[in-house]
Amino acid sequence: MENLEESIANLRDALDLCPPGHPERPSSLNNLGNAVRTRFEQTGRMEDLEESIALHRDALELRPPGHPHRSSSLDNFALAVRARFKQTGRMEDLEQSITLSRDALELRPPGHPDRSTSLSNIAVAVQTQFEQTGRIEDLEESIVLHRDALELCPHGHPDHSMSLNNLAAAVRTRFGQTGRMKDVEESISLCHDALDLRPPGHPERSASLNDLGNGVLTRFEQTGRIEDLEEAIVLHRDALELRPPGHPDRSASFNSLAGAMQTRFNQTGRMEDLEESIVLNCDALELRPPGHPLRSTSFNNLAGAVHTRFEQTGRMDDLEESIVLLRDALELHPPGHPDRSGSLSNLAVAVSTRFEQTGRMEDLEEAIALHRDALELRLPEHPDRSASLNNLAGAVHTRFEQTGRMEDLEESISLLRDALELHPPGHPDRSASLSNLGEAMQTCFEQTGRMEDLEESISLLRDALELHPPGHPDRSASLSNLGEAMQTCFEQIVRIEDLEEAIVLHRDALRLRPPGHPDRSSSLNNLAVALRTRFKQTGQKILQTGQMEDLEESIVLHHDALQLLPPGHPDHSEFLSNLGRAMWTRFEKSDRVEDLEESLRYYEEGADHVFSNTLMRLSVVVRWAALARSQRRASTVKAYRLALSLLESWLVKSPTVQMQHKILSGKNGYQTLASDAASYAIEIGDVAQAVEMIEQGRALIWSQLRGFRTPIEQLREINKGLADRFLTTSRELESLATSSDATGASQKVVDEMYSRKRRLASELEAIVGEIRGLSGFEDFLRARRFSVLQEAAVEGPVIIISHSKYRSDALIVLHDHPPVSVELDSDFDHDGPSLVVELKTALQKAQTEPKACDAGIEGVLESLWNRVVSRVVEKLDELGIEKQTRIWWCPTSFLSALPFHAAGPIPVVDRRRKYLLDDYISSYTPTLTALINARESKPGIRRHDIGRPQLLVVALPDNGLLEVENEVRAIQENRDFVKCLVREQATREAVIGKFRDHQWVHFACHGQLNPEEPFLHAFRLYGKDRLTLLDIIQSNLPNVEFAFLSACHSAGQTIGGAREEVLHLAAAMQFSGFRSVIGTMWAMTDIDGPFIGEEFYKRMFAEEDSPELGFKRSARALRGTVRRLRKKRGMTVERWVNLIHIGA
Fold first, then answer.
1. 944 falls in which pLDDT band (50, 70, 90)?
2. Fewer CB atoms < 10 Å away: N or C end of the chain?
3. What percentage of the chain exceeds 70 in pLDDT?
């Protein structure tokens, strides 16, 4: 640098001696401009580059058209401007550089001694443009220009070797786009020719060694020939020796050799190679101090090597260092910088890795955001767009694995298909795209069960394997991926050939992953799983001959795989589960207690592994519970408790209730988890715990929303600030949860929703932790104990109908007595859902075959009486529960669609047809907590005159509801304090606005079901207005009391979907504040409206002097109304059974 500084000082002195007008001034400007640009290349000081540009611009102005040296100034000015582009990414600079270079070429016609220089300069500039735009035409033009330059520099020309190198680099770049091996071979041949022209002692020999090393390394990456890799390392070492300390390109040699050493590590797993790579990258970084134009490159390279070491050792400090280095690199690539997209992508990969270690959702969210930003900078035709598509697909797929949200999987597949389109046959990255898409399609199959998805996966993975012939460095990954797909195929169609192929593929992959290989643990695990599967198929025959090699080898392999995983690795849960499964298989064959204990211990460790993803842990703990249960182990209860907790944790990661519902509706097998857990608690005689488990594990969406509205008056008296923080954060979370679904929203909006949910949930968790630290609040927002849940039965018993594949029971919760279990018959586990189907089939005949409909419903009612309700009534009698008292039903699963309140007929002496509603006043409740909340007093709410509530009637008469006007008149005749919104008055805004002014509300309109999107269940209002279930949830109505929903399906429970969530309009009304709600289980008959309205409200107002609160009279009034309705001439069973009461 001393020589360069001296040269610049001398050139400044020379310029001072050439004032404006001096004939040598343009030459002095030109020379000084070149010198300060050279200093910029060493130091990265932008002031030098800006000065160089200014000097060359001044020189060009002094060399107008016709000046003999104008072409030289054009070239130098172009080089300086292009250098600025590389720092700032301003496309104007690159375009100006190309224009200047083309102008220079025009001034250097064929025969001009400097024409080859101009051709080379334009070629480099146009290739740079290709790297920004991806336009293959630019790259092809660059190659043509380099060939033209080479022709002008024949053998013997001093620039012949340089032209060879330039053309070699361009042709190698084209290989990266097309995958044509002849381009790689030509590039290597050109580099060899250049090296021959630069014998030992030649000042540019090191550059040729470096270029040839890069070319040979590229060939290795395609063919896997280890000789090429070894040759590349030798070439780069030779180049480094020719670049001693102080050489301006020494850092580049460090960088190239480091890359080659890391590549060899990836093949052999030799840690010495990786450590040398890290040292070399550190040496390169030291030679690129702050301001150096290639400092960011060194940050990226060192980060990559350190990240690889983390993958081997699991040392978190390596991962953290990698992230710090990549953030430093990103800071050096501000918006507009041409390398910003690469830095964004690299940082995204690193923080995604950290997510896999820690499970911190903020890392995954950041990774997705960074990948999206990188993709936005890589427009169509950008050469790295496909890489960004693949990377973003991977991150979104990871989020799918966390949340189960199918939209993420679908987006991932769409992105991967786009990437594959950018990798046509022959493209060097086509195999990677085929593999990624193949794996995603296998995941899709596992969610949908569509064989087409699995067949496409296998086809894609076979194509990828064909592109990875023996010796290819990625062949082991392709073998492994195809092996997994073939095993999945076997599990579907049980073709032993598929399983045998899977085992062969996994063995081949394992051979290519010797000890030390970073992916060896994965291959060990995959082969172990396949061998255990084969043993399961042939195990009985093998056992008879005393041979269990497959199973024993599987267990050994699983142990080996686990030992290779560093502490905290996210695959621990899966690997432990697989080993547990293998030990269980041996237990089944050997009946050795030690195998049983070991198996359950591995399952427990896998379920408890906090660094594995929640969904994986959930699948492990459910299997642990099932296996422990089968052996009646004490750990069964712990497993079920953990499963219920993980189910809740998994669910609430999704930002909105609509997203959560979609997850619960999926084919994940968790819909019966609460009832399965409860059934075990019943088996061991702990009925109270069974009640707790059902309460904790069902109606999860309602429970979450109720948590956001937890009363905090007592907390406010102790710590007002903490109460206010809880209230603020809860309101934000509720607002997010009940916001419109993300369907149709941009993916960035969805990402932001996830990020906001995670942030707010973390804040709330911290706040709740503080609250629990206060005396008396230790159980704040914890799952309620039975002693608290028992309060639901203060006004009458609550009967929970638990339905599970293991057993079915009626659990009677009493206020002052331990809960009682009534076991149902053994076939009811299977027949219960059949009753729901029978009911649905009967109701479909209501309009066309009313007698057949009634016969079907009567059959269901009779079955309910004989198989469930009669046993409950018998137990109630034993417990001293008198007839004509109130009881509450809380059915689980499919059974929530059945009319328990009308079970019968009850056998009586005088042969009268008598049903349950004749002996008891039945109500329903989604959960015990919902019933407790419905009865709680509401602090700060003014009590209105109990006998004179304000009643709002919302009525929409039309051709299908001709009796609505008569229904309204019947209601109005009872009292004069009825406010009506009829026809055009009944808009969505008007109804919501009037809710707050009325304690009671009566809907007389159409109800509208949306089985796929229950939050869009709705009351049809005026015109196209709808009052949806989501609208109702969003309304917080502390002053309301009673709602009569005289509309079709207002309390109807759909058979499919998340059947434990009780998502219907009546439940939403109760959640929003209505203490008592009357609704319909199916379509309501229009002609019954006036009679029901008159009879019901007559009974409600007849007891105005009763001390019982008005809304609590509604269940008794409904019972009396229905009994009178049943006696009407021509009355059908379908009509009188329909109405039910929910709540207090």
1. very low
2. N
3. 96
In angstroms, the CA 45 to CA 345 distance is 26
CB 644 within 8 Å of CB 677: yes
Residue 490 to residue 502: CA distance in whole angstroms? 9
Q: Please report where in the chains the tokens 């049983």 appear, as a residue.
A: 596
What mean pLDDT comes out for the span 527-553? 78
What is the DSSP-derived secondary structure letter of residue 59? Answer: H
* Nearest alpha-carbon partner for 916 in 1090, 799, 1050: 799
Q: Quick one: tokens of 859?
A: 């059959």
Cα–Cα distance for residue pair 36/838, rounded to 1 Å: 89
Alpha-carbon span 1080 to 1007, nearest angstrom:
10
DSSP H helices in 1004-1129: 1029-1034, 1065-1072, 1089-1102, 1114-1126
327 has a pLDDT exceeding 70: yes
Q: State the distance between the two ends of the chain, measured CA to CA, in whole angstroms.
A: 88
| DSSP H/E element including 889 | strand 886-891
Mind giving me the DSSP string for 775-841? TT-TTTTSPPPHHHHGGGGTTS-EEEEEE-SS-EEEEEEETTEEEEEEEPPTTHHHHHHHHHHHHHH
Residues 324/312, Cβ–Cβ less than 8 Å: no
Judged on CB neighbours under 10 Å (0-12, 13-18, 19+), 942 is: exposed
- 420: its two tokens: 């594959």
Question: How many whole angstroms separate alpha carbon 770 and alpha carbon 259?
Answer: 50
For the stretch 210-225, pLDDT in tens is 999 999 999 998 888 8
Q: In angstroms, how far is CA 252 from the centroid of its own chain?
A: 40
The residue count of the chain comes to 1144
- Tens digits of residue pLDDT in 783-829: 999 999 999 999 999 999 999 999 999 999 999 999 999 999 989 98
Question: How far, in Å, CA of 1042 to CA of 105, rounded?
Answer: 87
CA 714 – CA 1056 distance, rounded (Å): 41
pLDDT at 1105 over 70: no
| Backbone φ/ψ region at 880: left (φ over 0), alpha (ψ -120 to 50), beta | left
Please name which of 1014, 1005, 1022 lies closest in space to residue 1080, comparing C-alpha atoms: 1005
In sequence order, what DSSP letters do the residues of 231-296 get, joined into one string?
A: HHHHHHHHHHHTS-TT-TTHHHHHHHHHHHHHHHHHHH--HHHHHHHHHHHHHHHHTS-TT-TTHH
**Bridge partners of 887?**
922
Number of C-beta neighbours around residue 845 at 10 A? 17
Q: Are 1134 and 857 in contact (CB under 8 A)?
A: yes
For 205, other C-beta atoms within 10 Å of its C-beta total 19
Whether the Cβ atoms of residue 688 and residue 800 lie closer than 8 Å to each other: no
Q: Judging by beta carbons within 10 Å of its beta carbon (0-12, 13-18, 19+), is residue 410 exposed, middle or buried? A: middle
pTM over the 0.85 mark: no
**1130: which residues sit within 8 A by CB, 6+ positions away?**
none
Q: Span 216-237, mean pLDDT? A: 92
Of the candidates 984, 965, 990, 991, which has an alpha carbon nearest to the alpha carbon of residue 1023? 984
Q: What is the pLDDT of residues 74-116, one digit of tens each?
A: 999 999 999 888 888 788 999 999 999 999 999 999 999 999 9
Calpha distance 1005→955 (Å, rounded)? 6
pLDDT digits (tens, 9 = 90+) for 238-259: 999 999 998 889 999 999 999 9
Q: CA-to-CA distance for 1015 and 1058, rounded, in angstroms? A: 12
Q: Which residues contact 122 (CB under 8 A, 6 or more apart)?
A: 98, 101, 102, 105, 145
Output phi, psi for 359, to 5 deg: 75, 10
- Both tokens of 521, joined, read 């643990």
Tokens 């630069």 belong to which residue? Answer: 198
H/E stretch holding 643:
helix 635-651
